[in-house]
Write a structure and sequence with these properties.
The chain has 351 residues and is of the alpha/beta class. It has 7 helices and 19 strands. Strand 14, helix 5 and strand 15 form a beta-alpha-beta unit.
Length: 351
């Protein structure tokens, strides 16, 4: 009996991972994603809880045990074709799998660690700052991706999205939007004394949040520092001369939490197609001079005039409650799950 239990707990499986062309060892109680990351693969993932579908993987050979019901985030035809979630899958046999690291066929940019220093910190809103970092050598990334920043005296890195579009040959000047959190270990460090010339490391890129190639309209929904990746993606789209119709809903609490008008003006002026920016304030005092929309940003999705929601792609970034509220509204409006992309920001990982 004890022998059977011991053997079961130490059982491992061999998993061939394409297109990496490598074989990893997966423990009996280890998810495919955990094993892939431990092996150093640039495997796509975001939430690790089965909520975002970023780690969608094609099961080519073998059997797995699902930790959660894939039907919550995958469409029926995807599951019928063998699609699984790597973060919610345990191996029951040796496996062969394939992951499209970016589902539009773009190649994976291997993550790398770069040394850098802070050049400037600029306030953007009441509690969001722009941190400009100069790297010792350029880094390549796709707009929408993120990097892990390590600062002196803090053991655990924090994840922040790139806030500007990359250059063709790689970017050496980076921008990150950091929300200042009360008692936040990392954000408090950035908010401390003048940090100019302070050294830090940037590890990335990670994630697969990015504009997918298409001609259909786009609805972008962001809240707080979720502006950063949306801004970078729209900047990159402008560089590529995209002419897609865009509606951008941005949720904030009060006018003090809105980005400077110059940031939005630069985005809308550069975009080649039609673009509408609609800020929505949830906690603006009733007696203020604000004449714009009030309430939660998700409440305004169905009110957009002259816009084909059912035929659009949706890009969402910001606090989990905002995204969780918006997703069913988008689905009920006809936006397909396969055309919905999001990146949830949490205080701990984006502190």
């Amino acid at each position: 009996m004890l022998k059977r239990l011991f053997n079961r707990s130490t059982k491992t499986y061999q998993v061939v991972v394409e297109p990496f062309g490598t074989t990893i060892t997966v423990g009996a109680k280890e998810t495919i994603l955990q094993a892939a990351l431990k092996a150093g693969l640039a495997y796509p993932y975001e939430c690790q809880t089965g909520a975002c579908s970023t780690c969608k993987t094609q099961l080519l050979e073998g059997d797995i045990k699902a930790l959660t019901d894939f039907a919550y985030v995958l469409e029926m035809e995807e599951m019928q074709s063998g699609t699984i979630l790597a973060c919610q899958s345990l191996a029951k046999t040796d496996l062969k799998i394939r992951v499209d690291t970016l589902d539009d066929g773009l190649p994976t940019i291997p993550a790398a660690t770069r040394n850098g220093k802070i050049e400037e910190i600029t306030p953007l809103t009441r509690d969001i700052i722009d941190v400009c970092v100069h790297l010792d050598e350029p880094i390549q990334y796709y707009a929408g991706q993120y990097a892990n920043l390590s600062i002196p005296g803090v053991d655990t890195p924090r994840s922040y999205s790139f806030a500007s579009a990359p250059l063709a040959g790689g970017a050496q000047e980076l921008s990150f939007h950091i929300r200042l959190i009360p008692d936040g270990e990392v954000s408090g460090w950035f908010a401390g004394p003048d940090r100019s010339n302070e050294k830090l490391t940037v590890d990335g890129p990670y994630g697969i949040f990015r504009i997918r190639e298409s001609d259909v309209p786009m609805i972008c929904i962001a809240g707080g520092s979720g502006m950063a990746p949306i801004k970078a993606m729209l900047e990159q789209g402008a560089q590529q001369a995209l002419k897609r119709s865009v509606v951008y809903l941005y949720g904030a609490r009060t006018q003090a939490d809105l980005y400077n008008e110059s940031v939005v003006a630069a985005l809308t002026a550069a975009w080649r197609g039609t673009i509408r920016f609609l800020p929505v304030l949830s906690e603006e005092p009733d007696d203020s001079d604000w004449t714009g929309a009030r309430g939660y940003v998700s409440d305004f999705i169905r009110t957009i005039d002259d816009f084909d929601l059912a035929g659009c792609q949706a890009y969402l970034c910001g606090p989990p409650p905002m995204i969780d509220a918006a997703l069913p509204i988008l689905a009920n409006a006809g936006v397909r799950g396969r055309d919905t992309y999001f990146d949830k920001f949490t205080d701990r990982s984006h502190e």
